[in-house]
Design goal:
Strand order of the largest sheet: 2-1-9-8-7
CATH architecture of the largest domain: 3-Layer(aba) Sandwich
Radius of gyration: 20 Å
Low-confidence stretches: 6-18, 261-285, 288-325
Distance between the termini: 49 Å
Largest sheet: 5 strands, antiparallel
Helix content: 25-40%
Number of helices: 10
CATH superfamily of the largest domain: DD-peptidase/beta-lactamase superfamily
Number of strands: 13
CATH class of the largest domain: Alpha Beta
Structural class: alpha+beta
Mean pLDDT: 79
Order of helices and strands: HEEHEHEHHHHEEEEEHEHEEHE
Shape: globular
Number of domains: 2
């Protein structure tokens, strides 16, 4: 009945014409679901490429139950090839590895890759959209209706900011093993380096995803998650007028919300314990990294502190130099004191001893606006694969973790 009601609602929207891009927003505590800010969070809007979060949720479901494998090659259909940008540029008859498709969605927001996954799981994109809508109802997304897997324009594809806060929390709660994909800054495909569209992630300390979106009808959308003082928040901003205004609004709302509500107990896990009560292109339609650079937001001020159990401090507190500085690493938090940073890296080594064997501890003072933070990293890892495996392992134990590429200072 809920799905039937949504179908009726969407038909009415289609007949009435496109929804205007409406500014809505919500911020919630990821662990408890407590709403810390709400601006018209139940107003119907278009999700645009935030749609791909549900495509990925169902992909992660399929990986967990064995219907897909990360190294599995999926066929590319003529329908997938026909998708408009943004896209990877796939051609019918090719194959695409599942993990490459995932990375294409979280970084480039590739519409053709979304269809490849949809057809692999649903047979056709339209049947997969029905699966997406059913899953939305199971998760408590009462007002969301999907018509495609990518978020390309369809006036019947609607959602709310509140529903997307629900989906963001569900991704972290139900698929913590795969959530680190959303922190991926870039990946290489076809000889090109494709950057993540979420530019705010590199400037707002503690943010590690989740997804951007843009169409003319939706405006600029962003679902994001960040950690400060051991507490994770989820924010959703819909209908921004530009990348800059959307990102600035998200940063301001998170800054405000971090000052409210109850903090978790010492040592409580961040992502792995989010078990709450059940309950693209600018001149067309796609995602938003093709907007002019001048529209990007300025750096914002924040401090992230990961919650970790007490552990002995480490002696290494200087940046890695020499060969280690040219190799991969992981960042396990940015802290308000050096002692907290030392504690985090020490605990990380204990929880991933094989992967982090030989890594060098680095707790470095940095300035974020007027604030001082201590970035806790383990550097000198052999390659990107090792760094990302370490993050997967640490996330299982409740750590915030981001892979750091050679030479990255931010």
């Amino acid at each position: 009945m809920a799905v039937l009601g949504a179908l009726t609602l969407a038909s009415g929207l289609s007949a009435a014409g496109a929804l205007a891009a409406k500014a809505t927003a919500i911020v919630v505590d990821a662990r408890s679901g407590q709403v810390l800010y709400d601006q018209d969070a139940d107003a119907l809007v278009h999700p645009a490429s935030l749609t791909k979060m549900m495509t990925l949720y169902l992909t992660f479901d399929a990986l967990d139950d064995g219907r897909l494998r990360l190294d599995q090659q999926l066929p590319v259909s003529s329908w997938a090839e026909s998708m408009t940008p943004t896209k990877l540029g796939l051609r019918a008859g090719q194959t695409l590895k599942v993990e490459t498709a995932i990375l294409g969605l979280v970084t480039k927001s590739a519409n053709d890759a979304a269809v490849v996954l949809a057809e692999a799981l649903g047979g056709t994109e339209s049947r997969f959209a029905e699966m997406m809508t059913r899953k939305a109802r199971e998760l408590g997304m009462r007002h969301t209706l999907y018509r495609n897997a990518s978020g390309l324009p369809n006036m019947e594809q609607v959602t709310t900011a509140r529903d997307y806060a629900t989906l963001s929390r569900a991704l972290m709660r139900d698929h913590p093993k795969y959530y680190p994909y959303f922190s991926r800054r870039s990946f290489v495909y076809g000889g090109r380096t494709l950057a993540n569209h979420n530019h705010l992630m590199s400037r707002y300390e503690g943010m590690d995803g989740i997804k951007t979106g843009y169409t003319v009808a939706s405006g600029f959308n962003l679902a994001a998650s960040a950690v400060r003082d051991g507490r994770r928040l989820v924010g959703v901003v819909m209908g921004g007028k530009s990348v800059a205004s959307r990102d600035s609004r998200m940063a301001a709302l998170l800054d405000q919300a971090f000052g409210r509500g109850e903090r978790p107990r010492d040592g409580e896990a961040l992502v792995a314990s989010l078990d709450t009560t059940s309950s693209d292109v600018i001149d067309g339609e796609g995602d938003d990294d093709d907007e002019e650079p001048a529209a990007r937001a300025k750096p914002t001020r924040a401090v992230q502190v990961a919650a970790v159990p007490v552990a002995p401090p480490v002696k290494e507190d200087k940046p890695a130099r020499g060969a280690a500085a040219t190799r991969w690493g992981v960042q396990v938090g940015a802290f308000s004191s050096r002692a907290a940073g030392n504690k985090a890296v020490s605990q990380a080594v204990k929880q991933a001893p094989v992967l982090l064997r030989g890594a060098k501890a680095s707790v470095v003072e940095a300035k974020t606006g007027k604030d001082k933070v201590y970035r806790a990293r383990l550097t000198g890892l052999a390659d990107e694969k090792t760094a990302r495996k370490a993050c997967v392992e640490l996330t299982k134990h409740g750590h915030h973790c981001v892979a750091v590429s050679p030479g990255e200072r931010s």
